[in-house]
Amino acid sequence: MIPLRDDIPSRTTPVINYLVIGLCALAFLAQQASSDQSEGIISGFAMVPLRLTDPDATPVMQHRVAVQTPRGVEIQEIRQEIGPPAVPAWATLITCMFLHGGWMHFLGNMWFLYIFGDNVEDRLGHFGYALLYIGTGVLAGLAHLLSDPGSPVPTLGASGAIAGVMGAYAFLYPHARVLAVLPLMFVFPTFVLPGPVFLGIWFVIQLVNSLGSLAGGEAGGVAWWAHAGGFIAGAVAALLIGRSPLGHEAVKDRRF
């Protein structure tokens, strides 16, 4: 499911939300311009769990690739050493939030942030929203770190922080509605769901995949625990801040 819009207009300009989107865009363009991301931006600013759990270790990734040899195609393992960080290892919990693995990763993250972030910033204020975004992003990174502390694989993307924004949205706007589309081959049906239901389905998918990764399943290169942990952190943060959920009366007359 892909959200198209919600029915809660912002009362203020989401300055911080736009700033985050802009910083992510600049970082992504810098990644695209980099001739060797593995030894440059990604190795310098991505969060590598092994760096935090064992600062003296050198992270080494192993890849299986098909290689044409005189005897035919053979599968060989390639070892790739991850270069040193450009900032202190703990700081990569923050810098990794502005990096992305590809166009779909970047566009998907920014679209979800655009849909849900403005309303959360509207309720928490600019400073409160900035704290929520960075704080839940760090907690999401720590959730991924705890799930796989010895991983040498660089972790990048704002997904954990955006999951935190979504968790806060689900708590702060229980009566919101989301217009979504479900791509099915050549048809694209649209439908309206309550905001918490849409986000709840998303969260359950992340949680199921997180539990599957602990059970020995393939994570597919996705930090599922960062998504689930960030969502929970965002909902709890919104609860602790003490902002009451938006009442039904405030949104009952809105239409798409």
Automatic annotation (TrEMBL):
It is found in: Membrane. Gene3D superfamilies: Rhomboid-like. The chain crosses the membrane at residues 89-115, 127-147, 153-172, 179-205, 225-246. It is a multi-pass membrane protein. It comes from the Bacteria. Coiled coil: none annotated. The keyword Transmembrane helix applies. One of its GO terms (molecular function) is serine-type endopeptidase activity. Its main location: membrane. Keywords: Hydrolase, Membrane, Transmembrane, Transmembrane helix. The keyword Transmembrane applies. Belongs to the peptidase S54 family. PANTHER family: PRESENILIN-ASSOCIATED RHOMBOID-LIKE PROTEIN, MITOCHONDRIAL, RHOMBOID PROTEASE. This is Peptidase S54, rhomboid. It comes from Rhodopirellula baltica WH47.
